[in-house]
Write a structure and sequence with these properties.
Length: 216
């Protein structure tokens, strides 16, 4: 039976997840979800205490494919997802950032949202992201961004999902059925579409500091 994963999105820049180009990818952050989610599972990202007001659905995806970081980097289909910090708005938040010369070499990190402020590799972000060598992909998603709809209180109460302070929550599909019944028609109405720009898109030139636990 499929699982449903729900978590609080700390920053919505179009980086994690990245919804551009007709595919939604979760390539950085959330290593526990990237490790456990299988094809056919749902993942929903909600606004939380760092992105108020809380409990708005930033995106919903059904996992349809995955890659290793090296596979993601080498696949010609994802060359456009490599970051270009001096490029277009979308390319600034490219999430195809990790690769190696060989499987025994250390990870290289492209200049990206997870690099240091001077563009050099951030070891802490690298270690956190690459702890799980897996990128989740979806061609069955909706990305609301700044138009994120609020989770109905009755739905949240039915599944026991309120302000989520933990890493994530996993539900069996049957237990999360009220949530799926709410989001599935919205996904169908906006299938594989970006309804609005990311909530923090204006801050896409910033970097995430793992020391300060905020964008700088």
């Amino acid at each position: 039976m499929p699982s449903v994963y729900a978590y609080a999105v700390s920053y919505d820049l179009g980086f994690a997840p990245n919804p551009f180009g007709g595919i939604l990818s979760l390539a950085t952050c959330k290593p526990n979800i990237r490790q456990r989610a299988e094809k056919g599972d749902w993942i929903l990202g909600f606004t939380g205490v760092k992105l108020k007001p809380v409990l708005r659905c930033v995106y919903a995806m059904v996992v349809t494919d995955d890659r290793t970081f090296d596979g993601y980097w080498a696949d010609p289909a994802f060359l456009g997802r490599r970051p270009e910090r001096a490029g277009s708005a979308k390319s600034q938040v490219g999430d195809n950032v990790y690769h190696r010369a060989t499987a025994n070499d250390p990870w290289l990190q492209e200049d990206s949202v997870h690099s240091r402020t001077n563009g050099t590799q951030c070891p802490l972000n690298t270690a956190h992201d690459t702890r799980i060598n897996r990128v989740l992909l979806s061609t069955d998603f909706v990305y609301f961004g700044a138009a994120a709809p609020t989770l109905p209180a009755a739905v949240g109460a039915a599944i026991g999902y309120h302000r989520n302070a933990r890493d994530y929550r996993r539900f069996d599909l049957a237990d999360a059925q009220p949530l799926i019944d709410w989001i599935a028609p919205l996904k169908a109405a906006h299938h594989n579409l970006i309804v609005a720009d990311p909530i923090n898109f204006a801050s896409r030139g910033m970097r995430f500091s793992p020391v300060l636990q905020r964008m700088v």
